[in-house]
Structures are given as structure tokens and as C-alpha cells.
């Protein structure tokens, strides 16, 4: 099974510098290997329609939906308290060292750095602290990863990739920002995930 790695972009339509689909498409062109659809405040129909639109700009099988309902996709990312759904091909969970990982394929570890997207959410673990948690599954570093240097440090510490929201969503040039981050955190699957590139 292929688990998320490289640059994983989390959506946030409220902070996006432009229409969400356009920002996500630019990030994918820049090298984002996976996309996590958050937007959990939207109603079901609106969120499902957004998932369908994002699937048209994200590489096949690389859209992950936050929460237990995959909205027609094949992967979910669960918060610590979310129930484990059945029949889902790929399941991730936010992990802080205590959550049950039965049936889970990968985890996010956060916050690695202080983050402006979720101020007060922490304290920041730092790269060493994240690595010392010894996640028992492939892990993505999350939180405050806003530069290639930070992304590279996370990968050097053992992360399979980096999960980034604010740095890409708020960027005036999300394609360039994604390219810089992806170059420091290459997709370990070794594939070029950009749409139209084989």
C-alpha cells in the first residue's frame, strides 16, 4: 500500500489566496503529492461537491478526506476521537502519542514548529521531539513547516513527508511555494505526482 509522503497539502478555503480549487491545482502542479480536504464546517452536499471538484485536479487516489466519511474518495484522515470507518482503502490519524492506531496506515505528528494557523496549539515539539515520539507507522510532520529548510529537517528526522496548510494556502504563488517545499520533501513513492506528468 502506498501511504502519503512528500508534500501533503491541507485545504483551508478561508485563508486561501484565491479560489480553493485553483490554489490546490497550482500546488499539485508545483509537486504536492497528496491533498487533504478539510472544510469540515461545510454541509454534506457542499463538501461532497467540493471533493468531486478537487478530484479533478488531484492525482488519482491522492485525495484524502478529513473525517470518517470519505465522500466518495478512497482515503480518510481522522482526528484523535473520530471513529474508524470500515471499507476504506487508506486511513490516517492525527497522533499525539496516545491515540489508538488499530486499522490506521499512517499518522501526522504535530505541531513540529509553532504555527500561525492554530496559534496556541502546542507546545511545538521541534524536529527532535517529533522524531523521539517514535511513531509506529509512517508519519507526516505537521505544523509551521513554511520553508524548504524546515521540510528538509523533518524528512531528515524520519518523516515520510510534510503536511502543510498555511504556507501554501496563503501564498501569492502556491505553485512556486509547493515546488520549494516538495523539492525538500520528495515523494518517497518516486513518482511525479503532478497532473499530466507521467
UniProtKB/TrEMBL annotation:
Keyword Coiled coil: no
Protein name as it appears in the record: Thiamine phosphate synthase
Pathway(s) the chain acts in: Cofactor biosynthesis; thiamine diphosphate biosynthesis
Skewed-composition ranges (Basic and acidic residues): 189-198
PANTHER family: THIAMINE-PHOSPHATE PYROPHOSPHORYLASE, THIAMINE-PHOSPHATE SYNTHASE
Region listing for Disordered, in residue ranges: 172-198
SUPFAM superfamilies: Thiamin phosphate synthase (SSF51391)
Biological source species: Actinoplanes sandaracinus
UniProt cross-references to InterPro entries, sorted A to Z: Aldolase_TIM (IPR013785), ThiamineP_synth_sf (IPR036206), ThiamineP_synth_TenI (IPR022998)
Keyword line: Thiamine biosynthesis
Matches recorded under Pfam families: TMP-TENI
Chain's role: Condenses 4-methyl-5-(beta-hydroxyethyl)thiazole monophosphate (THZ-P) and 2-methyl-4-amino-5-hydroxymethyl pyrimidine pyrophosphate (HMP-PP) to form thiamine monophosphate (TMP).
Domain Thiamine phosphate synthase/TenI residue range list: 8-168
